[in-house]
């Protein structure tokens, strides 16, 4: 009986060479593109709207078509919408799926690792409804909050009237 070699991995085929990735943060986003497309493949961008448009312009100049982003909070929403508005195919990746590999301790290496995983088609995007549905959901949630706040304010007024014996 012959012994089979373990640990050998077949050659992975790059599915998306024009992939990019962003490690989303509250004050800074680290973005990575294919090292063949740019002299500086990893850059930091701010979180303001103009910074996000600059990020989209940089991606276009590097020939990017698809972007994977990783975020644990709500900071991804403006970046997602701006990039989608610029015509990129954007996916949001759950941080748990990409963080389980040891050795990456900085945002720069995280962004590069995400880009590499995305270029090989190894990342799965979270569900994100279409823009019109997301807008409708935001309106409905805001309305629900306002109705709840109105009920609480009515109770406060009733309590004040009772305390004044009116």
Give the secondary structure arrangement, pairings included.
Elements: E1 19-23, E2 29-32, E3 42-45, H1 49-61, E4 66-70, H2 76-85, E5 89-93, H3 95-98, H4 107-119, H5 131-163
Parallel strand pairs: 1-4, 4-5
Antiparallel strand pairs: 1-2, 2-3
Helix pairs in contact: 1-2
Domain Transposase IS110-like N-terminal: 21-164
Pfam family, one: DEDD_Tnp_IS110
Protein name: Transposase IS110-like N-terminal domain-containing protein
Task: Provide a compact summary of the structure.
With 166 residues, the protein is α/β, with parallel strands linked by helices. The protein is 44% helix and 14% strand. Helix 1 (49-61) crosses helix 2.
């Amino acid at each position: 009986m012959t012994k089979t070699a373990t640990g050998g991995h077949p050659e992975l085929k790059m599915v998306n060479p024009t992939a990019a990735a962003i490690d989303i943060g509250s004050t800074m986003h680290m973005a990575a593109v294919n090292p063949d497309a740019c002299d500086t493949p990893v850059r930091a961008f701010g979180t303001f709207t103009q910074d996000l448009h600059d990020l989209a312009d940089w991606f276009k100049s590097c020939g990017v078509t698809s972007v994977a982003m990783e975020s644990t909070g709500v900071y991804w929403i403006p970046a997602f919408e701006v990039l989608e508005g610029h015509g990129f195919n954007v996916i949001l990746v759950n941080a748990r799926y990409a963080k389980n590999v040891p050795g990456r301790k900085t945002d720069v290496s995280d962004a590069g690792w995400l880009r590499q995983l995305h270029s090989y088609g190894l990342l799965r995007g979270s569900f994100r409804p279409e823009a019109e549905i997301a807008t409708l959901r935001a309106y409905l949630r805001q309305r629900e909050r306002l109705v709840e706040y109105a009920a609480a304010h009515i109770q406060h007024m009733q309590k004040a009237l009772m305390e004044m014996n009116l």
